[in-house]
Amino acid sequence: MLHLSGHSLDLSRARLMGILNLTPDSFSDGGKYLKPEAAIARAREMIAEGADLLDLGGESTRPGALPVSLEEEKRRVLPVLEALLPLGIPLSIDTRKPEVAAEALAMGAHLLNDVTGLRDGRMLELCARYQVPAVIMHMPVPDPATMQQHAEYTDVVAEVKAFLSAQAQKALAAGVPQVVLDPGFGFGKKVEGNLELVRHLDQLVELGHPVLLGASRKRTIGELTGVEKPEDRVVGSVAMHLYGVMKGARILRVHDVKAHREALDVWEALAL
C-alpha cells in the first residue's frame, strides 16, 4: 500500500499516474494545458479515463529546457493544485524547488516527485514534516540541462540501484514515511541504458520499495519505432510499460491514460 494522506493505493496491481504538464515547453504537450481551465479539464478527463493519481509540474525537465523562476512555477502550479484538490484523487507535485514543494504540501498535495532524487535536504525535511511520501528519481547530475552529458555508465543498473538505495535510506532515516523509486528513464541515459534498466527493473524492486516507470512518449520510444512525433508514440509507450509491469513496476507515469488503462485491464485479466 502507498499511503497518501487520506488516500491509499493498493499496489498489488499497477497504477496509472496521469501527467499534467503546466508548461509551454514540455517535450510532448507543452503549451496545451498552460491555461488553468485547460489543465483542469484535462485532469477531469484523465480521471474519467482511469488515472489513479495525477502528477502536476510547472517546469520542463527535458534536456536543454530553460529554467523557470520560482514565482513563475508557483503561478503555473498552485492555482491548478487548489482547483483539483476537491476532486478526490491523489495529487503529486513534480518539482525540484523546495519553495514550490513547501507551498504545495502545505495546501494538501499528497506526494512529492523530485527529479533530482532528494539531493536537497530541504526536500527531506518537508516530506518528513508533512508526512508525505516521495518519488526518488535517478538522474546522474542535479541539473536536467546537462544530464545527457553524463550518460556513460560502467554498469547502469548497478549504479542506478546504488543511488536509489542510498537516497531511500537517507529519506527514511530523515522521517519520510515512504519512498517510491524511479530509475529515471531518459534522464541522463542513452537508448541502451534505458532498455537495460527496464529489462532489469526487478533488481530495483528487490530494494523493497514501489517502483515507478515513466517512459511515456520519450525519445527512446521514437528511436526504437521510427515515430518522430512524441504524441504518436502511444503504442510503443504502452509496450514498454507493460514489460515494466512484468518486471515489477507498480506505478506508470503516462500521458495517454485511456490507452494504458485498456492495456492494463487486458494484461491483468491474463496475468493475475
UniProtKB/TrEMBL annotation:
Any one biological process term the GO annotation gives: tetrahydrofolate biosynthetic process
Keyword Oxidoreductase found: no
Signal peptide: none
Domain (Pterin-binding) ranges: 14-265
Pfam family name, one: Pterin_bind
This protein's UniProt keywords: Folate biosynthesis, Magnesium, Metal-binding, Transferase
Pathway: Cofactor biosynthesis; tetrahydrofolate biosynthesis; 7,8-dihydrofolate from 2-amino-4-hydroxy-6-hydroxymethyl-7,8-dihydropteridine diphosphate and 4-aminobenzoate: step 1/2
Cofactors (names): Mg(2+)
One cellular-component annotation, GO: cytosol
PROSITE patterns: DHPS_1 (PS00792), DHPS_2 (PS00793), PTERIN_BINDING (PS50972)
Highest taxon above the source species: Bacteria
GO terms assigned for molecular function: dihydropteroate synthase activity; metal ion binding
Catalytic activity: (7,8-dihydropterin-6-yl)methyl diphosphate + 4-aminobenzoate = 7,8-dihydropteroate + diphosphate
EC numbers for this chain: 2.5.1.15
Stated family: Belongs to the DHPS family.
PANTHER family: FOLATE SYNTHESIS PROTEINS, FOLIC ACID SYNTHESIS PROTEIN FOL1
Role played: Catalyzes the condensation of para-aminobenzoate (pABA) with 6-hydroxymethyl-7,8-dihydropterin diphosphate (DHPt-PP) to form 7,8-dihydropteroate (H2Pte), the immediate precursor of folate derivatives.
Name listed for the protein in its UniProt record: Dihydropteroate synthase
Lineage: Bacteria, Thermotogati, Deinococcota, Deinococci, Thermales
